What does this fold into?
Amino acid sequence: MTDLFDDIEDILEPQQIPADDKAEMLANLADHYETMEKEVSMAESLLAHCQERFRRLREDIIPEKMIELGIKKIVLTDGATLSYGDFYAGKVKDEAGYDWLEQNGYADAVKTELKLEASRVDKKIIDMVKEFLSQQVGYQNYSAKEKQSIHHMTLGAAIKSLTKQGKELPQNLFETFIGKRATLKRGKDNG
It folds into this structure.
């Protein structure tokens, strides 16, 4: 890849640009814009492809091969260890999933965020918001958005806990993934 930033800097050097050349300069910048936009798109596509290949290696190929060979953990010559373990992940598909988690002992895992937006934030507006919240009365020029969520690691831990208890999450409320995942831990000298 060419370093387009160097080219752009050359175009924008502080100098007297004749009027006729200004349009040409903008046309060159538009060309750079288009080229960089394509490069970013290609890099994003390549990254997505690499991430999928790494996921397959980590979650399918290595664990399957280690299971086939009867190896749970191996120490490599450089001191790194390669092992695999169970992996639990998921996401909430329906808002009722949060209620289900609360009703099944995971109420603390569910977080609710209330976001207030104002067109202009200053001390006066902040004071009005505080007053509103303390008195629970009407308000003007605000929009409030409430969002429930659960951190993906927390949901993974809940799925693991429920699975080990022999309970299943309702498939209409949750999308779950349970599988194996390889990890490679570097030795002390290779940190």
In short: Residues 64 and 70 are 10 Å apart (CA to CA). The beta strands are 73-75, 81-92, 111-118, 142-149, 174-185.
